[in-house]
Amino acid sequence: MAYRQLNTEFWQDPEMLDDFSPEDKYFYLWLLTNPKARQCGIFQISKREAEIQLGYTWESVEKLILRFENQYKKIMYSPETKEIAVKNWLKWNPPANPSVEMNVKKDLATVKNRALVAFVLGPTPSIQGVDTVGTPAPIQEQEQEQEQEQEQECQDSLALAEEGMVSVPTPSESDSTAQYLYDSIKIKSDPPCWKHKSPDLKKWSEDIEKLHRIDKIDYADIRAVIDWSTSHAFWSANILSADKLRKQFNKLYLQMRQRASPQRKGFNPNDAKQQEALSRILAEV
Predict the structure, then answer these.
(1) What's this model's pTM, rounded to 2 decimal places?
(2) Has residue 30 got a pLDDT over 60?
(3) Which of 82-86, 155-159, 188-192: highest mean pLDDT?
(4) In the structure, what pLDDT confidence band is assigned to residue 275 with cuts at 50, 70 and 90?
(5) Does the structural domain 8-162 have CATH classification 3.30.870.10?
(6) Segments making up each domain of the chain, as ranges
(7) Residue 139 pLDDT
(8) Which long-range contacts (CB under 8 A, 24 or more apart) does 81-84 make?
(9) What is the pLDDT of residues 177-214, one digit of tens each?
(10) What are the angstrom distances between the C-alpha of 217 and each of 103, 184, 225, 254, 284?
């Protein structure tokens, strides 16, 4: 079992304090401490492993990856090789001695996407003598062993999860739903005002929690309304906060149900087919 030390200044980082939501902090901590994290700051992980360890669907994990890659610039993800590089890995996990630095170099030599190596080391790498543009060293046997270990660990995790022996700490449902609302609005509308001041997701989470606890609305229904309203021509421009979502929820929910339900047509005396059907029914009475 590997152990990861984390500098306590991690929690004092300005971005952590000002920009990250509780879900962001949870995901960032996972990036630094998950079982597949290696000493070089680059690790390979399957979709299923990420789902099990985080307790999220891959769709939610993918949103977090995109946010950390495009908005925060903290990671680089290679879909082809399924490798993730954490930019500040060496900042929070510096090599403690020459032996650790040697292991870091060995790990870097096995990275398949070499662009990830340059991303982690930066323009002025603290570790010298690492090839950032060439091809990985010929380590076919080592890669096969790593793949077998990853497959076995994945199977073990699946078995433990099915037996209920794995407990994955996750953010509150209101936090994740508030983040889901933010991501949905960002993707569909991307309000210009957010470029100057980001929404208060803590306040959003409180509004979502009230919608669930006080108004007795299931989180599944809340997410369904979020999906519908952020795709609606009118409501997508008007539901730009959790507070507005709560105030308009009943109206949104009813409209969503009405649009989803097929409209029943009443009897039309001028409809020849309906007249014919009525005549047959009366003849049989």
Answers:
(1) 0.47
(2) yes
(3) 82-86
(4) low
(5) no
(6) 8-162, 173-260
(7) 41
(8) 81/44, 81/112, 81/113, 82/44, 82/45, 82/46, 82/47, 83/42, 83/43, 83/44, 83/111, 83/112, 83/113, 83/116, 84/31, 84/42, 84/43, 84/44, 84/45
(9) 999 999 999 888 778 888 778 889 999 999 999 999 99
(10) 52, 19, 11, 13, 49
